From TrEMBL:
<protein>
    <submittedName>
        <fullName>ImmA/IrrE family metallo-endopeptidase</fullName>
    </submittedName>
</protein>
<feature type="domain" description="IrrE N-terminal-like">
    <location>
        <begin position="61"/>
        <end position="157"/>
    </location>
</feature>
<dbReference type="Pfam" id="PF06114">
    <property type="entry name" value="Peptidase_M78"/>
</dbReference>
<dbReference type="InterPro" id="IPR052345">
    <property type="entry name" value="Rad_response_metalloprotease"/>
</dbReference>
<dbReference type="InterPro" id="IPR010359">
    <property type="entry name" value="IrrE_HExxH"/>
</dbReference>
């Protein structure tokens, strides 16, 4: 599990362990399979999507706002999982609790990295591009297929340089 430091490795791991159903990656089960991570869904204060914090040495808790939609929770889980995989050594420097995937010039490099990792993991490029073609760029249907919000889907399309109405 420690070697899941690239989205390609995460996706390959998920395929090998049956954590991808069609095109939707089961981020919740991926987190639960890691003995060093605990996932908690609970109501969080307004303006907070999720957090990750170290609860004891090398053990971390990912908290996700239970008041949010399933798709928002999935992206939040993926974002915090990305922080765990990429920024584990620097987690104490992150704010406890954050808003995820919101347009802001104040976002730092670690947040952009976590958003990109989350989007790439939930919507792998090759699969994403083929599904966009197969579904004629229908944002609503594509978002359902990947289990993400239309905002997350558009974020991924933009990051891949895709242009057009919707996607």
């Amino acid at each position: 599990m420690d070697a899941l430091d690239t989205t390609e490795r995460v996706v390959q791991y998920c395929v090998r362990h049956g954590l991808i159903d069609g095109v939707e990656l089961d981020i919740e089960r991926l987190i639960e399979r890691n003995q060093y991570l605990t996932l908690k869904k609970k109501p969080l204060p307004d303006g907070i999507d999720a957090y990750i914090k170290e609860t004891k040495p090398n053990h971390f808790e990912i908290g996700v706002n239970a008041k949010h939609s399933r798709t928002r929770q999935r992206f939040s889980m993926a974002h915090e999982f990305a922080h765990y995989q990429l920024h584990r050594e620097n987690l104490n420097g992150l704010a406890e609790g954050e808003r995820i995937l919101h347009r802001s010039d104040e976002r730092n490099h670690l947040e952009y990295q976590a958003n990109d990792f989350a989007a790439s993991m939930l919507m792998p490029e090759e699969l994403f591009r083929s599904e966009v073609i197969r579904m004629n760029g229908d944002v609503t249907e594509l978002a359902k297929r990947f289990g993400v919000s239309p905002l997350a889907l558009r974020y991924r399309a933009k990051s891949l340089g895709m242009k057009g109405h919707g996607v």
